[in-house]
């Protein structure tokens, strides 16, 4: 049985998802959870892209004890130098050098010949190897590169010292059979006097990322790259939890295993969902809310007789916990904090007081507080604007002309209140107009989604929004949780506006992807 390593790029490729802007603190918390999940290497960022990305790679390097930390670099010496500086404190540093190789990228983006690209690879992989023991090389858009040229590219990188060869399906173009054949061909034909580990890096544009990744494993890949929950630009990257669980369930077929600690899967997935502001679809494989519910009568009958009739993945395998310590109206602060610990929810000491008071308010309205409610309470942590204001309350009045007037109360840490009034054609519009008035900045609402945290009429509501800062073009995701759906929506919009205001005040940097910077200079 072969062991397949996992490289997680949630903090680099995953952060290229519109609206996802992890703070440095969030990135460190995510990296710690990824280490606990059994990830062998974390691609922590693209240090040359922005001071924030550099800082995140530095801090993650210091925080990791067993997991390797990698930085992305274009085939540019200053990018490799930035990786070297950012990864100075990493126990196991890695540098990931890439350049595009497909005809369309060569002609239109790079304006370079095949030979020129081979020279660039040789020069920069050699340079990276002078600074790092472990260098990964990626031919971007590999799956649209001529196969014989791809072999030359890979051989050049290997001869220059790369030990990991990553084959990106950058635009999610390939199919399982075709991708498997690429791996077979390269592994059979690349020559080296030392071990070379090949990895797939699949995007999901045609919905085949998991199948493609697994086929690469079947054909000899020794490492896989992807993100948690499959986040990433466009249709995203391969979801690592799907690959890990598929390897576990179909171990015999793939003849491969991984070091992923499967019962940390749900915790990992929920943390990414919380920090990315991207809800997990109910029908998502492995971690979706419906993955373990059996609606139809026939299924229920079978599952009750023997769960294996319809359930190939047990909830326990991926860490779905049963309510072992139910909370209610009479639960005190101690029981509440114990529950936060039991659910392994990361929280700061200063957050306990506001979280507990939210819990008490909820317990007044709901008899049974489930684990999902507690997770939602933590996920719904409110973001203050730079002046320390957050959402306080709202009141609505219906007018004779069918418009609605909203009064939104914003409150700061000293209890100072600011009231804003605005009209709208409906309740949401009125509330959002009032929030706009408070913030007085240019923001465009891109999406608004309502979800229920639990079953039942007494469920808390979760509203997720995406907004664009019209001045910078940055997109921010934010969510709000409340028993009242309109208040949840107000909190989400206030949180999103607070992020925009922080960006305008220079308190948070814009996340910069390698696609935002010139390819090769
Ligand atoms: O998708 C891609 O090509 C990438 C490379 C930088 C590896 O993310
Ligand atoms: Zn990618």
UniProtKB/TrEMBL annotation:
EC numbers: 2.3.3.13
Q: Which Gene3D superfamilies match?
A: 1.10.238.260, 3.30.160.270, Aldolase class I (3.20.20.70)
Would the keyword Repeat turn up in this protein's UniProt record?
no
EC main group = transferase
- What are the protein's UniProt keywords? Acyltransferase, Amino-acid biosynthesis, Branched-chain amino acid biosynthesis, Cytoplasm, Leucine biosynthesis, Manganese, Metal-binding, Transferase
InterPro entries (UniProt xref): 2-IPM_HCS-like, 2-isopropylmalate_synth_dimer, AIPM/Hcit_synth_CS, Aldolase_TIM, LeuA/HCS_post-cat, LeuA_allosteric_dom_sf, LeuA_bact_synth, PYR_CT
From the UniProt record, give one GO term of the biological process aspect: L-leucine biosynthetic process
Which residues are noted in the entry as Mn(2+)-binding? 13, 201, 203, 237
| Keyword Manganese in annotation | yes
Kindly tell me the pathway this chain contributes to: Amino-acid biosynthesis; L-leucine biosynthesis; L-leucine from 3-methyl-2-oxobutanoate: step 1/4
Q: Where is this region: Regulatory domain?
A: 390-521
One GO CC term of this entry? cytoplasm
Where's the Pyruvate carboxyltransferase domain?
A: 4-266
- Gene Ontology molecular function, alphabetical: 2-isopropylmalate synthase activity; acetyl-CoA C-acetyltransferase activity; manganese ion binding
Question: What reaction(s) does this enzyme catalyze?
Answer: 3-methyl-2-oxobutanoate + acetyl-CoA + H2O = (2S)-2-isopropylmalate + CoA + H(+)
Q: Which cofactor does it need?
A: Mn(2+)
- Function description: Catalyzes the condensation of the acetyl group of acetyl-CoA with 3-methyl-2-oxobutanoate (2-ketoisovalerate) to form 3-carboxy-3-hydroxy-4-methylpentanoate (2-isopropylmalate).
Q: Which family does it belong to?
A: Belongs to the alpha-IPM synthase/homocitrate synthase family. LeuA type 1 subfamily.
**What subunit structure does UniProt give?**
Homodimer.
Question: Which protein is depicted?
Answer: 2-isopropylmalate synthase
């Amino acid at each position: 049985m072969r062991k397949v390593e996992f490289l997680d790029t949630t903090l680099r490729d995953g952060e290229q998802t519109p609206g996802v802007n992890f703070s440095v603190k969030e990135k460190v918390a995510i990296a710690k959870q990824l280490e606990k999940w059994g990830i062998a290497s974390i691609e922590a960022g693209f240090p040359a892209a922005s001071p924030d990305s550099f800082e995140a790679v530095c801090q993650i390097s210091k925080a990791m004890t067993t997991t390797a930390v990698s930085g992305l670099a274009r085939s540019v010496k200053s990018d490799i130098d930035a990786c070297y500086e950012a990864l100075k404190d990493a126990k196991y540093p890695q540098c990931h050098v890439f350049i595009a190789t497909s005809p369309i990228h060569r002609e239109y983006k790079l304006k370079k010949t095949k030979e020129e690209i081979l020279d660039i690879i040789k020069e920069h992989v050699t340079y990276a190897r002078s600074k790092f023991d472990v260098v990964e090389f990626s031919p971007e858009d590999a799956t649209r590169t001529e196969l014989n040229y791809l072999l030359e590219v890979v051989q050049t990188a290997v001869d220059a010292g790369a030990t990991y060869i990553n084959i990106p399906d950058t635009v999610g173009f390939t199919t399982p059979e075709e991708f498997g054949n690429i791996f077979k061909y390269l592994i059979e034909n690349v020559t080296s006097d030392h071990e070379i580990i090949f990895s797939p890096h699949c995007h999901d544009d045609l919905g085949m990322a998991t199948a493609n990744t697994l086929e690469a494993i079947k054909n000899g890949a020794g490492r896989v790259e992807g993100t948690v929950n499959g986040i990433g630009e466009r249709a995203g990257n391969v979801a690592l939890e799907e690959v890990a669980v598929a390897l576990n369930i179909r171990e015999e077929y793939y003849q491969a295993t991984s070091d992923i600690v499967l019962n940390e899967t749900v915790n990992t997935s929920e943390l990414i969902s919380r920090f990315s502001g991207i809800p997990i679809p109910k029908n998502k494989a492995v971690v979706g809310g419906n993955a373990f519910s059996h609606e139809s009568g026939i299924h229920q009958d079978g599952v009750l007789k023997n769960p294996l009739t319809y359930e190939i993945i047990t909830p326990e395998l991926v860490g779905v916990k049963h309510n072992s310590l139910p909370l209610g109206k009479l639960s005190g602060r101690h029981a509440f904090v114990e529950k936060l610990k039991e659910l392994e929810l990361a929280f700061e000491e200063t957050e306990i007081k506001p979280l507990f008071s939210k819990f008490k308010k909820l317990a007044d309205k709901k008899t049974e507080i489930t684990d999902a409610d507690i997770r939602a309470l933590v996920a719904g942590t409110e973001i203050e604007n730079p002046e320390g204001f957050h959402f306080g309350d709202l009141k609505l009045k219906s007018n004779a002309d069918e418009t609605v007037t909203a009064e939104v109360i914003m409150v700061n840490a000293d209890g100072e209140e600011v009231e804003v009034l605005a009209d709208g054609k409906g309740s949401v519009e009125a509330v959002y107009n009032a929030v706009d008035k408070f913030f007085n900045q240019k923001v465009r609402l891109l999406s608004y989604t309502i979800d229920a945290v639990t079953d039942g009429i007494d469920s808390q509501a979760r509203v997720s929004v995406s907004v664009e800062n019209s001045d910078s073009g940055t997109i921010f995701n934010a969510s709000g949780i409340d028993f009242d759906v309109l208040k949840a929506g107000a909190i989400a919009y206030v949180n999103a506006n607070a992020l925009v205001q922080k960006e305008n005040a220079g308190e948070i940097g814009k996340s910069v992807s390698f696609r935002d910077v010139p390819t090769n200079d």
